[in-house]
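Follow-up to my earlier ticket, as requested here are the two runs.
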Amino acid sequence: MLILGFMVVEVIGGVLSGSLALLSDAGHMITDGAAIALALFAQHMANRPASAERTFGYQRAEVLAALINALSLWMIAGWIFFEAFRRLRDVPEIEGGLMLVIGVIGLLVNLAAAWVLHRSAQHSLNVEGALKHVMADLMGSVGVVISGVLVLTTGWTLVDPILSVLIGVLILASSWRLTIKVFRVLLDTVPEHIDVYRLCSELEEQEGVTLVHDVHVWTISSGHESFTAHILVDPAYEGDMNELLSSSQEIVRHDHGVGHVTIQLEQLRVGADCAEDHHVDHLLARSREQRKKRKRLLL
């Protein structure tokens, strides 16, 4: 409500003052409101229970919302660049005083919105996407304030499209990390905080374990990671298989923070009755750092 209410003020102020920075900021505020509405809807969908046809429920809805938010930021930056180039060729008259007043109010509104969102942004890609929109808008408000001061004190109206370009660059930079995070989830990449080499090494250090293979680690949605693997057990192992399974799950779940763990124990020759991909490149390194050092040496 803060954002959409002030967006109306910025549209009126942008038309009256002739400021591209204000109008671009107003256009971005529309997407801010849409981003937060999308985040709320995705959160509602993610909380819906799983079913036989959707075994993970709608948890990926928040990732899709974050992707839409990231792509919309790039589209906004493109529009700002286009309008700024057009105004660099034909700079209009700008009312600096009105621009400055609205810019200061917008700065306060965006600070309030950012404060509301930042507390949960680190736990959700969805909320982080909405926060990126608000932070980009915050940078836009700073640009509006600077433009208003310079136009009011020096009469240099060219600063408006120049600062608009800088705002566009900052929007692209701020959305880049979010975009990378979203694509990592959609490509089922191993989460950054999980060292799969160390994890597999710790599993293999257990008594009776010969090899960990067919390993898969991925993110379903923010804070919901999954792990599946086959553990080859020495046929001569005389210990309790249930205890071995429990200790393996404990390593994955509690030591490495993975919530959804599926482990299959096997007492057979590796590959004898198993059709899955046995990728075991973790045997070449005991940690992610060792893996990186090995790759540098090979290069």
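Run two:
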Amino acid sequence: MQNKIFNIQSPEDFKQVAFSVFRHQFENNKVYRSFCDLLYIHPSDVHALEDIPFLPIQFFKNKKIISSLEEVQEVFTSSGTTGSVTSKHYVTDIECYKESYLKGFAHFYGNIEDYTVVALLPNYLERKGSSLVYMVADLIQRSKNKKSGFYLNNIEELAKKLIKIDQKGQKTLLIGVSFALMDMIEMQQFELKNTIIMETGGMKGRRKELVRDELHAFLQQGFGVATIHSEYGMTELLSQGYSRGNGIFQTPPWMKILTRDTEDALTIQKIGKTGGINIIDLANYNSCAFIATQDLGKVHQNGTFEIIGRFDNSDIRGCNLMVL
């Protein structure tokens, strides 16, 4: 099944693999099966992607969402404030996660070995439960570049190194939490020609929250780049969407975004309407591939999507909380 998931070539391929994954999880995931039973939905009732039940993401906070009898290899946890309940993603096949993010990165950016990867994120040893840090740590290692690495408090050192790397014409990926990127351009202004700036989220209490356009305008000016890239992922997923500018995200072939009616969570909307983001992540074969998130967004005709905000009263969450 993993081979089929990562070799999807067409919408029809996606649909057929999604149906297979749904049947597998209906039979092997006790929590998801109970949810489907409550909705009186059986695989025999599912004839379109829109018929598949999407499990509310909150279930990851208090239930063990797993569709495998294999031993759990990693438990990824969401960031959270003191006393808050965090989500847990039980991963029984870490190689599936690696294949997902490596093929996903290659799909949009090419061979990781062509890049120097520098990260304004906590070191993996400081935040072992983060799926984002796990991914970036592996990308750093696979870049096979001695200048790749994690940075957080030593921003001044990174600024000097980044300028030197960029001036040598080396393709570079700088991925970081938004407030740290803002800190960096307050310290130093750049004119980067060979560097991708990728932000992973908002300020989360460290700075005043900015709307995306305002944040990206500051970062574009400060780094001297034409566009700001973004990564869209979460603890409960094993795949990521990427934006190469203007907040318009794309997904790899094994991931799809739908929107649901904000007043009727079981109704999938037509393309172009703003609603709750539902995600099909087929790499989540051994947990749950069909998730109703707390994000609000819009899907476009070409399959791209944008995130507009979050439902009111949602828990504060996001990668930036890792450094609080």
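The only thing I checked on run two: The chain has a mean pLDDT of 91. Let me know what else you need.
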